[in-house]
From TrEMBL:
Tree of life domain: Bacteria
Protein name in UniProt: YD repeat-containing protein
Length: 1089
């Protein structure tokens, strides 16, 4: 039967590494900081540059995580991808009406199925065959990260959050996506998969095959071959610059299963939660020769599980066949960045690592960066004694192969002569790491050292009839010392200085989860039991019957309002609701205002749940002389048992906080401190705290978003399904994530012997925009709302006084708003067929005669998005007895998502006002068609003092308004024609500040004229990539074309770097150009590179 938690194919290591930044962006709001090693920045134009750097993720390393091609925890910043996470089946974008009709049919059929006698026919035929869930796409670029989905009701892709970006797919005849174009708000176009020109490369990471392997159902095929990730192949800027990206195959084909890359994606087990499948309550019985014969069961799936699968651990593995690729080159004009992969295969994965990065100009190597790599655990020749190894089904060889992890030890920089210039060295927290297939994981998937675990199902109890049962044996507790192993500890810089990092586990105070049923507080709560029972009926020494009439009492106190399961079993008493005269009366009293009052009375076998308010209780039981049949036969007394079960706090001495009853630990790491040193002398220490103190008590400001799933109660009738789900990037729309409401940063300056303190306050809670139409207990499709969390709301800055106390010197507050809410409640539906329920045997003696109904569980989930923006910022500065307040009000009144007005009000109540107009406001349809909607075309600045306002500046940039004008004035490109300024006294009168007279075919400006009438000519060389001459006072028509051709040709020859060619010929040509008599009236400047 379908279970959405179990069907998943992990992405490649590099893509998964980028996915961590999409799910949890770098921010103090989640305890992460930016750690990177810059390699090179490729400048393109005024609004675009491509940084190449190595980034480290400080949020922790999960046991199941595969190191990227750089090394564990690191990734390469310049990779550009669009990754798809398939929901249900792969989307077909050619038939929106069919999808919408399917959603409508599903909704109607689910309603009919819940009220009708028989299963709805549409559900039986389509529930598992029709796509009802839109896929999720994740964009990861050096300058943007966001998600998007296809809204079949509007026939367009919708970004989360909303933005000005256009998403344009190419579809084949079957409605499947072939490639993508993304156009940003400045009109730059990013090509993914294909480049739309003569470059016929097709760069995708294809999920060729996927095999799901389980000890429950052996081998099964996963997803059909499909494009899982589209790679960035080209960028075309709005001024016609082109940057190309090239890739190498990075897959080593392996047919031996023992050497394949295997992921443990899930684990589960079943337990019945009552006796009904063992005591025959649901059996279908036929009488043969006067004897009862069981020929069926009312719930056949539940019965089969209870009798054959109960308590068995089932692992689900994925062996994805993915045609991975590794970036090999970035090429822009004469500059090339080359990425060279290792010549030897990795030990931990069937691929190659990134070995070197070379920066080239005109095909000459300028710099080389060598990645110095090794493997974690290489210092431990003997694997740790991990019980997981023998409990991984058929994957013991794969278990051992998954022990090494690629490690980046340092980066060395070499000059063009291959001489070392500098070196960064990295040091990590020591210790031995487990295999990626190990069960030694905390609830969030981080290493916890419990290698004795033989499963992932945690040691929690669940209600079984009138008693309890243990679901699993695993210790999934969070342990900081183990989760830090392998984390970056120290960076040593070429100067000899260093930065040291320390981490600690996350904490949280509250949970925000769309699931209505949460299994207690997993990390500090446990099921507690109170047993209240009669003594034995006979003296163990003499065997004589004890007196039947006896009283029992027991005191108990609840420290907070508590939901309690009450279970009573009373022997020799009729099971009657009106049993006030029964021989037993179990009465629970509650103390109210110092007096005992009856809270509940039980005189028969009962199983119920009651809410016990905080306070004192007295449990009493009185056994009277009445016993069997309540007829006074006191010699058959019988006994009683009362069990109360409830969730209560674990008394854990290992918790490092001072208030363990309220602060809960969670897996993953947050930054604790950063130390800057020079020559091993501490210069600056920065410490971070994520708590707040209220009324003398310490509380964590963390909120946990997304609760780890442990169990689905009654997954099948009477059957609980327990999970050991392992979280991977891109697995769900929202994984577990902790966001802090307050972070205190204290910097200790040891050089100047002073401290600086800042308190940051973040948005860490928001109502979940979701529909309640669901019968599935645990909701997997919590709408992605990541952009709503982590916004900085307030900053408090302090200085340290001479006496060591702190004084507030500045307070910044920010208020956010949103616009253009998108909420489609019928966006998708998840349907899972569960039980088969026997309706009738029609008197037959064979299961072939039986009529069954299928019980379907479902969940409707919405598409939610909006545009959130900073509406107001107030800066309050405190100087001794003075308070100065500056306010900034931002207005976004246009249909797009750009700032339309910014008003700054100063402490003296005067204000500056700047308004902006864009292509939409100016009606420039050509720019709108090119999506150049973020470029301000008009700016008006004004100042107000008291009641008097005046305009200070009004300027406007003129662009062509149609293609014909662009062809005439800007070489067919959408580039500025002129810049205007307006007279303050007469805003209708404009002055041309500068005219951009002529561009070449690549968008290079060749001539401009200022308002004083003086023109300047720019000559572009090096194959139209660099200016080589500037002639001030001249026009292009004033300069002989032969003079221009001579220096352009010389620069192109110089750029070619042919044999026996040096710069002397070019320098000579430039000298001749400058000395030419026809240019003597102009100021001439020449350039070489």
């Amino acid at each position: 039967m379908k279970d959405s938690y179990l069907g998943f194919t992990p992405k490649t290591p590099d893509i998964s590494s980028l996915g961590k930044y999409i799910d949890k962006p770098i921010s103090l709001s989640n305890g992460s900081v930016n750690v990177s090693v810059p390699i090179y920045t490729l400048p393109i134009n005024s609004n675009l540059s491509i940084p190449v750097s190595l980034q480290y993720n400080t949020q922790g390393i999960k046991v199941s995580e595969v190191a990227s091609s750089v090394g564990q925890g690191w990734n390469l910043s310049s990779i550009g991808t669009i990754s798809r996470s398939t929901r249900g089946k792969r989307d077909n974008y050619n038939d929106s009406p069919f999808y919408l009709q399917s959603i409508a049919s599903a909704k109607n059929s689910l309603m009919n199925n819940s009220t009708g006698v028989y299963t709805d026919v549409w559900l039986d035929q389509n529930a598992e065959n029709v796509d009802l869930e839109p896929d999720e796409f994740n964009v990861s670029l050096f300058n943007m990260n966001f998600k998007f989905f296809y809204d079949f009701s509007s026939n367009k892709f919708v970004s989360t959050p909303l933005n000005n970006i256009k998403i344009i797919p190419t579809l084949n005849n079957y409605g499947n996506i072939v490639d993508f174009k993304i156009i940003d708000g400045s009109g730059n176009t990013y090509f993914f998969g294909k480049s739309d020109d003569n470059d016929n490369r097709f760069e995708v990471i294809e999920e060729v095959s996927s095999v799901s392997i389980s000890n429950d159902n052996a081998f099964s095929s996963g997803t059909d071959p499909q494009f899982g990730t589209w790679l960035l192949v080209k960028i075309t800027t709005n001024d016609n610059k082109t940057i190309r990206f090239y890739y190498d195959n990075n897959t080593i084909s392996v047919t031996d299963l023992a050497k394949q890359d295997v992921y443990l994606t899930s684990q589960y087990k079943y337990f019945a939660n009552n006796f009904d499948f063992f005591n025959g309550k649901y059996d279908v019985v036929s009488w043969a020769s006067g004897n009862p014969v069981v020929i069926g069961n009312k719930y056949p799936i539940s019965s089969e599980i209870a009798k054959t699968k109960e308590g068995n651990v089932y692992n689900v593995y994925s062996s994805p066949g993915i045609a991975d690729k590794l970036i090999s080159r970035i090429v822009y004009e004469n500059t090339e960045i080359e990425f060279i992969k290792s010549t030897t295969a990795r030990k931990d994965f069937n691929a190659y690592s990134l070995d070197k990065i070379k920066i080239k100009n005109n095909n000459n190597v300028i710099k080389t960066y060598q990645l110095n790599q090794g493997y974690f655990n290489s210092e431990f020749p003997t694997p740790m004694n991990d019980f997981s190894r023998s409990n991984n089904y058929i994957f013991t060889p794969n278990f051992d192969r998954a022990i090494p992890r690629l490690k980046l030890n340092g980066v060395s920089e070499y000059d063009k002569n291959n001489q070392i210039i500098s070196k960064h060295n990295f040091e990590y927290f020591p210790g031995q790491l487990p295999s990626r297939l190990s069960f030694a994981q905390d609830f969030f998937g981080y290493y916890n050292g419990h290698t004795e675990n033989i499963e992932l199902i945690p040691n929690i109890n669940f209600k079984y009839a009138n008693s309890v049962k243990s679901a699993g044996t695993a210790n999934r507790a969070v342990r900081e010392d183990y989760s830090k192993i392998g984390m970056l500890k120290k960076i040593t810089y070429p100067t000899g200085g260093s930065t040291e990092f320390d981490y600690e586990n996350h904490t949280y105070q509250a949970i925000n989860d769309i699931n209505e049923v949460v299994i207690g507080n997993l990390f500090s709560m446990e099921t507690k039991y109170v047993f209240f029972a009669s003594e034995q009926a006979a003296d163990p020494n003499t065997g004589e019957q004890l007196p039947p009439e006896m009283n029992y009492e027991m005191n108990w106190e609840f420290e907070e309002d508590t939901s309690v399961d009450l279970n009573t079993q009373i022997e020799q008493v009729f099971d009657e609701n009106n049993g006030a005269n029964n021989s037993y009366n179990i009465i629970i009293y509650r103390k109210v205002n110092g007096n005992w009052q009856i809270f509940t009375l039980m005189s028969h076998t009962i199983d119920k749940t009651a809410m016990f308010p905080k306070g004192e209780y007295l449990l009493t039981a009185h056994r009277d002389v009445l016993t069997v049949n309540e007829g006074g036969m006191f010699d058959s007394a019988g006994g009683f048992t009362l069990m109360m079960s409830f969730l209560g706090p674990v008394k854990n001495n290992q918790q490092p906080n001072t208030n363990p009853e309220v602060i809960q630990n969670a897996g993953g790491l947050r930054i604790k401190s950063i130390i800057q040193k020079e020559n091993n002398v501490e210069l600056l220490r920065t410490e971070y705290s994520y708590n707040e103190t209220v009324g003398g008590k310490v509380y964590s400001t963390g909120i946990l978003h997304g609760y780890p799933l442990l169990v689905t109660e009654n997954f099948y009738e009477g059957i609980n399904k327990f999970y050991g789900v392992i979280d991977y990037p891109f697995r769900n729309s929202s994984g577990s994530n902790i966001v802090y409401g307050q972070v205190t940063e204290t910097s200790i300056d040891n050089v100047n012997n002073k401290k600086i303190k800042k308190e940051y306050f973040f948005e860490n809670n928001a109502p979940l925009e979701a529909t309640d139409m669901a019968t599935i207990e645990h909701r997997t499709r919590t709408p992605y709302m990541g952009w709503k969390f982590g916004n900085l709301k307030k900053t408090l800055s302090y200085k340290q006084n001479d006496n060591g106390s702190y004084a507030l010197i500045q307070k910044d507050t920010i208020i956010y708003d949103r616009k253009n809410l998108v909420l489609n409640e019928n966006f998708g539906v998840r349907i899972e067929p569960r039980n088969r329920i026997l309706l009738s045997t029609f008197g037959g003696q064979s299961p072939d005669d039986y009529i069954y109904k299928t019980d379907y569980k479902y969940e409707y989930y919405p598409l939610f998005s909006d545009f959130s923006f900073e509406r107001k910022k107030q800066i309050t500065e405190l100087f001794n007895d003075k308070t100065l307040i500056t306010s900034i009000d931002n207005t976004y009144s246009n249909t797009h998502y750009q700032l339309s007005n910014k008003k700054t009000t100063f402490p003296d109540t005067s204000s500056n006002d700047i308004s902006y107009a864009y292509a939409s406001e100016k009606g420039n349809q050509l720019m709108i068609s090119k999506n150049m909607v973020e470029i301000p075309l008009e700016t008006i600045s004004s100042k107000t003092m008291g009641t008097t306002s005046k305009i200070l500046v009004k300027s406007e940039t003129i662009y062509p308004i149609n293609q014909s004008e662009a062809n005439t004035k800007t070489s067919g490109l959408v580039l500025p024609i002129s810049v205007l300024s307006y007279e303050i006294q007469n805003l209708s009168t404009a002055t041309i500040e500068v005219n951009f007279d002529k561009y070449d075919s690549k968008g290079n400006l060749q001539q401009y004229t200022t308002k004083d009438g003086i023109s300047t000519v720019i000559v572009w060389g090096y194959n139209q990539t660099q200016p080589i001459a500037k002639i001030e006072g001249a026009k292009l028509t004033d300069i002989q074309q032969s003079l221009v051709d001579a220096i352009v040709t010389a620069s192109n020859t110089d750029a070619a770097e042919a044999a026996n060619n040096d710069e002397s010929a070019f320098l000579s040509a430039l000298n001749t150009f400058r000395m030419n008599a026809s240019l003597s009236a102009y100021q001439v400047t020449t350039y070489t590179y």
